[in-house]
Design goal:
Elements (H helix, E strand, L loop, with lengths): L1 H20 L12 E10 L11 E5 L18 E9 L10 E9 L7 E10 L4 E10 L5 E11 L5 E12 L3 E12 L2
Protein name: Dirigent protein
Main location: secreted
Subunit structure: Homodimer.
Length: 186
């Protein structure tokens, strides 16, 4: 009887020690099925750079125009873009796809935008698209937007994309690093 109790105690202590020695993910935390990282490069048309521009203002408030971004944190400007996507932060690297969509500056007091866009791939590595939408508080170091779907290699993908402004040059150029974590992969 004493031996059974001793063995039971040792077994219980063994289980207890294992439960404290292994790192536990947060309850309900999920592990991504796929991780990707890309850069996209936006060159906004400013009246002088039509040959190199990858985006243009297509809507502006009454006090602004469609060539130069509006004052007051660009509030009311709507920009459409077709930007190259690269694997590194060099604008002149070979593109692996295009970032295509819109962003709308939606707040007067601070730089913030709302994004809706797709990464469109047609390379040997990836085919199809990943679709994104969400708020982009530009002054935050990192911000998350939703991955809301996809096609091809990314059919019905769901997840989160973390955006980081990697570089910007005034109001003409910016580069975003996009770290993608997909939680539904087919």
């Amino acid at each position: 009887m004493e031996a059974k109790r001793f063995i039971s105690t040792i077994f219980f202590l063994f289980l207890l020690s294992k439960s404290y020695s292994l790192p536990h993910p947060k309850k309900g935390a999920r592990i991504p099925c796929k991780r990707l990282a890309f850069y996209f490069h936006d060159i906004i048309y400013n009246g002088n750079n039509a040959k190199n521009a990858t985006s243009a203002i297509v809507g502006a408030p009454a006090w602004a125009n469609k060539t130069i971004l509006a004052g007051q944190s660009h509030f009311g400007d709507m920009v459409v873009f077709d930007d190259p996507i690269t694997l590194d932060n060099n604008l002149h690297s070979k593109p692996v796809g295009r970032a295509q969509g819109i962003y709308i500056y939606d707040k007067k007091e601070i730089f913030t935008a709302w994004l809706a866009f797709s990464f469109v791939f047609n390379s040997t590595e990836h085919k199809g698209s990943i679709n994104f939408a969400g708020a982009d508080p530009l002054m935050s170091k990192t911000r998350d937007i939703s991955v809301i779907g996809g096609t091809g290699d990314f059919l019905m993908a769901r997840g989160v994309a973390t955006l980081m402004t990697d570089a910007f040059e005034g109001e003409v150029y910016f580069r975003l690093r996009v770290d993608i974590k997909l939680y539904e992969c087919w």
